[in-house]
Automatic annotation (TrEMBL):
Low complexity bias: start-end ranges: 232-249
Disordered, as annotated region: 37-87, 205-249
Name of the protein described by the UniProt record: Lipoprotein
Length: 249
């Protein structure tokens, strides 16, 4: 007769083996956490947009970081007075006329149009959809004599021009990521600050303001360690001179 003390250890081992086999073969009927069940097709992967420079020629570096003038809890922007959007849209308007009607940047309206970096003036205007309604907004950048860049954006609303963004910095690199606008600028400590603007229904507001810090090279301790102490030298004792009596033997 087989005793229970001999049967129980063998039964426990068999139960564990069956449980492990079921887990490995997926016999429980569920996929692994976060995985796919048997016969389930993999979901399609959405293609994420990549940043595209709005003004590729103006993508230099500067030790200053950008500063944004837009803040939350402001009243809705008001349309500019004295200008109307023609039938052809914002792209048919004179950039100088738009700046002249905007009291925030009116002082830059007399700048000349420029087509390459390194000079003060108004860059070629850019049309980009920033609100997601399928209609392009007007992007304007003004490079000043002091080296700073002023960036403004305008949208059309019932035939009127509405300002939706004002930002400035030292030679800011402007990129568009989907319908978002990203302003990148190196900082004085070697890092980079990136301010991301997103349409909130009234204006381009700050969606994120991140800073990446420069990687510090690992400190080398080789130069700080003291030079190794010279190891003590032992002088070899001279061999005894054999006596004449020893040599005779």
């Amino acid at each position: 007769m087989i005793s229970r003390s001999r049967l129980l250890p063998g039964a426990s081992v068999a139960a564990v083996a069956v449980a492990l086999a079921a887990a490995l073969l997926g016999l429980a009927g569920c996929g692994a956490p976060g995985g796919l069940a048997r016969g389930e097709t993999a979901p399609s992967v959405a293609v994420q947009p990549s940043p595209e420079a709005v003004w590729p020629s103006w993508s230099g570096r500067s030790p200053k970081s950008p500063a944004a003038d837009t803040t939350e809890h402001q009243p809705p922007p008001r349309p500019l007075e004295g200008v109307r959007v023609p039938a052809g849209g914002l792209g048919q308007m004179s950039v100088q006329d738009v700046l002249e009607a905007d009291p925030r940047v009116k002082q830059y309206a007399d700048r000349e149009l420029i087509h390459r970096p390194g000079r003060a003036g108004i860059r070629p205007p850019s049309l980009s959809d920033l609100t997601g309604d399928g209609r392009p907004e007007l992007l304007v950048a003004i490079d000043t004599e002091s080296g700073s860049t002023v960036i403004t954006a305008y949208r059309e609303l019932r035939g009127e021009v509405v300002p939706i963004l004002l930002a400035r910095g030292k030679r800011v690199t402007v990129e568009q990521l989907g319908t978002d606008l990203v302003l990148r600028q190196p900082c004085a400590d070697g890092g980079e600050q990136a301010i991301r603007y997103r349409w909130n229904g009234e204006r381009m507001s700050t969606a994120s303001d991140t800073k990446t810090y420069a990687k510090t090279p690992p400190r080398s301790y080789a130069k700080t360690l003291p030079p190794p102490s010279p190891s003590p030298t032992t002088s070899a004792s001279p061999s005894p001179t054999p006596h004449s009596s020893d040599t005779a033997r």
